[in-house]
Amino acid sequence: MKASKMKFGINYVDTKSPLHALNGITKFALFMAWVTVVLTTFDIRIIVSMVLLGLALLKMTRVAFQAYKPLLFGTISVLSMNAVFMFLVAPQQGSEWVGSTTTLLELPAGYSLTQETLFYLCTITLKYFSMFPIALVFVFTTHPTEFASSLNRIGVPYKIAYAVSLTLRYLPEVKSDFINIMHAQQARGVDFSKNAPLMTRFKGVAKILIPLIFSSLDRADEISNAMTLRGFGRSKTRTWYNYRPLTRKDIVVLSGIALCVVLALYKRHLEAATVWYPF
């Protein structure tokens, strides 16, 4: 059995794009504002607009598509399965959500697919997916140390800022461990290919995740011990090697972000219902 090669990255990539020139705080504010707007609306018009804008920003990072292609298709697969499970658990959720029932297809075991449920599942799936591009934009364009130093400069304790930096820095290490464990399991005869039954593939993933969790815990323990031996946390303040001050461009972007969040919350306040259903 031929071992598959996995080539993707979820780490900082310096492509000198316009987004890389922004301060880490600005990009973090964009990410948090994005999540806030997504969580406050069920208007598919806004959600689709955010998906398209997020993909455009992801394209603007100039990171090669191959770097996040597996993550993209993996996310789509997981969200599709989630939509199926939601339908199986609550097949009439969309009708209850909208307040009407338009049956499109009668299914076995007493299930029926309604227009309202289909619209609801599409809205929820796009709602979750809309956060995927902006999360990659943040990771691809934000240097961990620079972001941590910016957090510290705006008042976040440096211990918390450094923990954030370590999290971003060791994402590539987790990916590397995942690939190594997968190849080790393939060498033992575990089949992860598309030809394997679905349950076999699920069991194979479990055989990767359990060693991955333990290896991550071991690495965290080693880092904690190393930082303790070096006296980390004894001082109330610390200096940073990388620091990028806020520029006029950052102020303009932050102002635009704040305005968008205020408008989104105001729109949500004015709406009598959270649902937008055009049919």
Write structural notes for this entry.
With 279 residues, the chain is mainly α. The chain contains 11 helices and 2 strands; from the N terminus they run ααααββααααααα. The protein has helices at residues 24-39, 44-60, 65-89, 93-98, 115-129, 131-141, 144-153, 158-169, 171-187, 198-229, 248-270; strands at residues 103-106, 112-114. A two-stranded antiparallel ribbon has the order 1-2. Strand 1 (103-106) and strand 2 form a beta hairpin. Helix 2 (44-60) runs parallel beside helix 6 and helix 3 runs antiparallel to helix 5. The radius of gyration is 22 Å and the shape is globular. The N and C termini lie far apart (51 Å). Residues 1-7 have low confidence and may be disordered.
Summarize the structure.
The chain has 279 residues and is mostly helical.
Produce the secondary structure layout.
Layout: H1 24-39, H2 44-60, H3 65-89, H4 93-98, E1 103-106, E2 112-114, H5 115-129, H6 131-141, H7 144-153, H8 158-169, H9 171-187, H10 198-229, H11 248-270
Antiparallel strand pairs: 1-2
